[in-house]
């Protein structure tokens, strides 16, 4: 049986060869806007209606996805195909969108009689489409994120014309497009009619090399038609583009200084504007070098995502992404897992981001069937595979920002990948080829992996990794530079462990950085019955097969608010490091790849208990990359109590991506230590003694329940607790992972349902001492807590000691601390400690020591799937007050971590969406000594050994006192 065209494993028919995107002066007509649309349940041949009553169809915006405009619904799977693995066939249920619109051709269009052609260009249609102009079939195409052009000149009529498109959700091409994202269909990128004048410039290939030893640029432009080239700034006027033109004194292009030279390429029929960036890329001596230097990728994986528009991004959103990246010290993007909208690459050229441009190819779902029939190793798919890489490279070849071509993602191994690599090497020998899926790396130029543990990355850094499958392949691979094309899975709370990766990238020259997975949560806004907004994820649209909230694993929330993970990454990868220098100095390390520090201004501030007492500027010499300066510090003021010096590096002048004053890096150094370093044995001048009276035990301002020993009141304030508490709502990183998920072990041991037994609660040496045994059902493991309360007139002191009982084996604890409740009105929180954002033991580089104030709602981090969040670390003290300033003050030794929430950890754990969290009538506080680290176990290594919370004996001292205004 003949295959229908949408099951054709080839690339399609009827379209033009791929060519470069161009900024041309030839006439163009955008066909974006409202089209007529209807959705059919199958791909069956068009009913006559396709030609008849279309003016009554619905309207739909182009570009767009029909599932986001009221037709059908989104569906999310990660690896698994949402249809049977039966290549190249697709199910009969194959939602098919019929699109149609009329357009009026401008009066002076160029006609075939004038030697002109007209191309109907589609920048992206998901997943396979057939197209007609004025009723004539032009052909069909697959390759959703690739451009296709159909020649229509001879079919056009003056005045009104009609274009019709049938788009199938499923096609043979779907087998090649199994990226981890929502399945969304339709004409989702621009549609344009392009006039191609006689003697137009259909294709051009700019080669702009940079000889770093001499500063010479070497320019050579291949053109499809004879043309002339002008680069006025370089004194080139109407020269032969083929050159090569050697130009001394060139300022090279880099992500740090994206110098572009304007140029014009002209033929008798057309002029094309170029923006040329001179740079050289080489893999030599086992290193990836740009302009002669080793670079380090501080990268992210970017899917195209807009919460309302899906992958139909407008330019403003793309610009927002670029600016957010630049402002967060990110210098590189992998376009996971397909070529982006071409405007995004223009923005990368302009603002400066290194790019790995990835082909639209992923066959991950074949892993589910043992890679049987994998298209990347089957000759019937070779033409499609080659077409995909050709369309990627040809469209994007003139972008200086693109350093590497990537063959695709997670497509196993196979001869078609090898053929794609060979084609790249022939067509563009100047750019190295990347592909992660074949760990032997036989036909690529960088060794790339995803989610390798710190330990393995370190071994690779030492070129001491486990061998490849043959000695020959091993020799090739061992000589390659290394990158992690994905690492540090940013799902929910986290990632933890970033700083330890960055240390490795800085220690071993072979390790040239990586790309955090991923840039943005692909959440879709929905409203709860009461109208409150939440973000939907897999399963929320009734999909029978889905991968839940694995789609929400970005550094940005769906609305593009930076998550704490992005703020952490920004600090970890800051290109300037500020640490203690020789006595009387501060050390400033330049970790840029190319830039000196001349564009930065340095300021300092001294804060005494978080209150600024002096500030000034710091003169820092220019300092070349890889070097450091040790400017002398000014005479610092005398301070009492805990004081810190903060040095900040800010932009001295405006940059295209941020204004003067934008903070690039900061560091803190201690000035004077905390007093008292260790508190006296009593909290105040008038020691109190516990008294038993009526229904309570009284001690200073405290009233305790004699049966449980729990504090009931502090002065006027009704409280409940504090009592020992170890549970946290597991994070995504606690739940998943390559290692046995920690949360599974916690739940198996019953750490979410600890029971408290009061062993004794009695006066002892002037104190009130409460001993409890805290343990889960069905085991003999326990934590023995001793609360030693001492009091003064105004305050209470708690010395908590915890001992472990039983054999805990390798079991860790989620947290170790206290939980208590206070009245809900005490929702104004201030503290001196790490802030202002949340932090955990392996994700706390971005937190600085200071005095901060936030209300309880602002302390919460709204992860798309609710989970542990909002912890503030190392507080020396914290106050929880009502708006008039009355409430509770807690001071701690050592510094304590805290959260304040309107719900419990159990509520957080049970919630599936942010709107499931309903405020209770109390405020829940945690006051903690320690936490299990976060890690990135949702896809990658769990918390490092040094960040695990192993049960052990522990001590915490807290002072509780009423807080009053003033
Ligand atoms: C890896 C994929 O390449 C990426 O697309 C994404 O799915 C990521 O995982 C997880 O969010 S593949 C995985 C098997 C390591």
Report what the structure shows.
With 966 residues, the protein is mainly beta. The chain is 11% helix and 37% strand. The chain contains twelve helices and 61 strands. Strands 44, 50, 51, 52, 53, 54, 55, 56, 57, 58, 59, 60 and 61 form a 13-stranded antiparallel beta sheet that branches. α3 packs parallel to α4 (415-427) and α5 packs parallel to α7. The N and C termini lie far apart (86 Å). Bound molecules: 1-methylethyl 1-thio-beta-D-galactopyranoside (IPT). 1-methylethyl 1-thio-beta-D-galactopyranoside binds next to loops. The site of 1-methylethyl 1-thio-beta-D-galactopyranoside (IPT) has 13 residues, from loops.
Which key terms come to mind for this protein?
8-stranded parallel β-sheet; 61 strands; single chain; 966 residues
Q: Give the averaged pLDDT, no decimals.
A: 96
Work out the helix count.
12
| Amino- and carboxy-terminal Cα gap | 86 Å
Q: Give the tally of β-strands.
A: 61
Uncertain segments of ≥5 residues (pLDDT<50)?
A: none
Q: Give the bound compounds.
A: 1-methylethyl 1-thio-beta-D-galactopyranoside
What is the radius of gyration?
32 Å
Shape: globular
Structural class: mainly beta
Which percent band covers the strand fraction?
35-45%
Helix content, binned percent:
10-25%
How is the main sheet built?
13 strands, antiparallel
């Amino acid at each position: 049986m003949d295959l229908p065209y949408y099951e054709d494993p080839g690339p399609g028919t009827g379209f033009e060869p791929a060519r470069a995107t161009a900024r041309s002066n030839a006439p163009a007509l955008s066909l974006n806007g409202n089209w007529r649309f209807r959705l059919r349940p199958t791909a069956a041949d068009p009913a006559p209606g396709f030609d008849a009553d279309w003016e009554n169809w619905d309207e739909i915006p182009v570009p767009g996805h029909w599932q986001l405009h009221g037709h059908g619904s989104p569906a999310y799977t990660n690896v698994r195909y949402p249809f049977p693995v039966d290549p190249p066939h697709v199910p009969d249920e194959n939602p098919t969108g019929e699109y149609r619109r009329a357009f009026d051709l401008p009066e002076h269009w160029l006609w075939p009689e004038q030697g002109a052609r007209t191309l109907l260009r589609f920048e992206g249609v998901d997943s396979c489409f057939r197209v007609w102009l004025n009723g004539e079939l032009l052909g069909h195409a697959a390759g959703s994120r690739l451009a296709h052009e159909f020649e229509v000149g001879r079919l056009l009529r003056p005045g009104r014309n009609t274009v019709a498109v049938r788009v199938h959700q499923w096609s043979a091409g779907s087998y090649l497009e199994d990226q981890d994202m929502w399945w969304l269909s339709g004409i989702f990128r621009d549609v344009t009619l392009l006039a191609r004048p006689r003697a137009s410039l259909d294709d051009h290939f700019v080669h702009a090399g940079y000889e770093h030893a001499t500063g010479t640029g070497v320019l050579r432009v291949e053109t499809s038609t004879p043309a002339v080239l002008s680069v006025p700034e370089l004194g080139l006027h109407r020269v032969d583009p083929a050159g090569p033109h050697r130009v001394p004194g060139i300022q090279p292009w880099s992500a740090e200084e994206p110098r572009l030279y304007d140029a014009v390429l002209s033929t008798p029929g057309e002029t094309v504007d170029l923006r040329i960036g001179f740079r050289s890329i080489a893999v030599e001596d086992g290193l990836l070098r740009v302009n002669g230097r080793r670079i380090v990728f501080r990268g992210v994986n970017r899917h195209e995502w807009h919460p309302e528009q899906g992958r139909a991004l407008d330019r403003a959103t793309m610009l927002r992404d670029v600016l957010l990246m630049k402002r967060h010290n990110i210098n590189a993007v992998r376009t996971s897992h397909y070529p982006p909208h071409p405007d995004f690459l223009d923005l990368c050229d302009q603002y400066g981001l290194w790019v790995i441009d990835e082909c639209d190819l992923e066959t991950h779902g074949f892993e589910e069937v043992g890679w049987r029939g994998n298209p990347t190793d089957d000759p019937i798919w070779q033409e499609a595979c080659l077409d995909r890489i050709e369309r990627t490279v040809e469209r994007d070849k003139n972008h200086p920002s693109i350093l590497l071509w990537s063959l695709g993602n997670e497509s196993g191994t196979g001869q078609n990948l090898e053929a794609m690599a060979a084609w790249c090497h022939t067509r563009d020998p100047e750019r190295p080829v990347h592909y992660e899926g074949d760990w032997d790396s036989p036909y690529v130029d960088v060794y790339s992996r995803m989610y390798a543990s710190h330990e393995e990355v370190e071994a690779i850094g030492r070129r001491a990794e486990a061998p490849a499958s043959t000695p020959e392949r091993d020799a090739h691979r061992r000589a390659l530079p290394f990158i992690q094309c994905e690492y540090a899975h940013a799902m929910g709370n986290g990632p933890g462990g970033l700083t330890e990766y960055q240390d490795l990238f800085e220690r071993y020259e072979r390790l040239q950085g990586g790309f955090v997975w991923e840039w943005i949560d692909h959440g879709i806004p929905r409203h709860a019955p009461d109208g409150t907004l939440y973000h939907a994820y897999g399963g929320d649209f009734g999909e029978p097969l889905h991968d839940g909230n694995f789609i929400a694993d970005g550094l940005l929330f769906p609305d593009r608010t930076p998550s704490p993970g992005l703020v952490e990454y920004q600090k970890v990868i800051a290109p300037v490091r500020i640490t203690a220098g020789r006595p009387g100095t501060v050390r400033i390390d330049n970790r840029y790849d190319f830039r000196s520090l001349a564009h930065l201004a340095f300021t300092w501030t001294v804060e005494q208990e978080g209150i600024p007492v002096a500030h000034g500027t710091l003169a820092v010499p220019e300092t070349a990359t890889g070097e450091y300066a040790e400017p002398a510090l000014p005479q610092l003021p005398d301070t009492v109590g805990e004081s810190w010096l903060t040095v900040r590096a800010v932009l001295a002048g405006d940059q295209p991506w941020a204004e003067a004053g934008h903070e690039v890096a900061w560091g803190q150094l201690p000035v004077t230590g905390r007093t008292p370093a260790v508190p006296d044995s009593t909290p105040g001048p008038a020691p109190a003694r516990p008294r038993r009276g009526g229904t309570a035990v009284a001690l200073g301002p405290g009233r305790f329940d004699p049966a449980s020993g729990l504090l009931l009141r502090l002065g006027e304030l009704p409280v409940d607790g504090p009592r020992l508490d170890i549970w946290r709502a597991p994070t995504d990183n606690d739940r998943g992972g390559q290692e046995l998920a920690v949360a599974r072990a916690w739940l198996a041991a019953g750490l979410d349902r600890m029971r408290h037994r009061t062993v004794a609660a009695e006066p002892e040496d002037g104190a009130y001492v409460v001993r409890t045994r805290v343990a889960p059902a069905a085991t003999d493991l326990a934590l023995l807590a001793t609360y030693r309360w001492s009091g003064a007139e105004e305050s209470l002191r708690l010395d908590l000691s915890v001992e472990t009982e039983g054999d805990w084996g390798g079991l860790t604890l989620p947290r170790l601390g206290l939980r208590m409740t206070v009245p809900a009105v005490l929702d104004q929180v201030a503290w001196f400690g790490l802030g202002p954002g949340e932090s955990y033991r392996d994700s706390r580089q971005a937190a600085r020591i200071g005095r901060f104030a936030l209300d309880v709602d602002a302390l919460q981090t709204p992860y798309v799937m609710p989970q542990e969040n909002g912890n503030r670390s190392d507080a020396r003290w914290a106050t929880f007050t009502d708006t008039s300033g009355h409430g509770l003050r807690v001071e701690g030794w050592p510094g304590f971590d805290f959260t304040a929430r309107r719900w419990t950890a159990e509520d957080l754990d049970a919630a599936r969406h942010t709107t499931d969290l309903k405020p209770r009538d109390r405020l829940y506080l945690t006051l903690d000594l320690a936490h299990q680290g976060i890690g990135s176990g949702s896809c990658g290594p769990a918390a490092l050994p040094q960040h695990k919370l192993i049960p052990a004996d522990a001590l915490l001292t807290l002072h509780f006192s009423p807080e009053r205004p003033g």
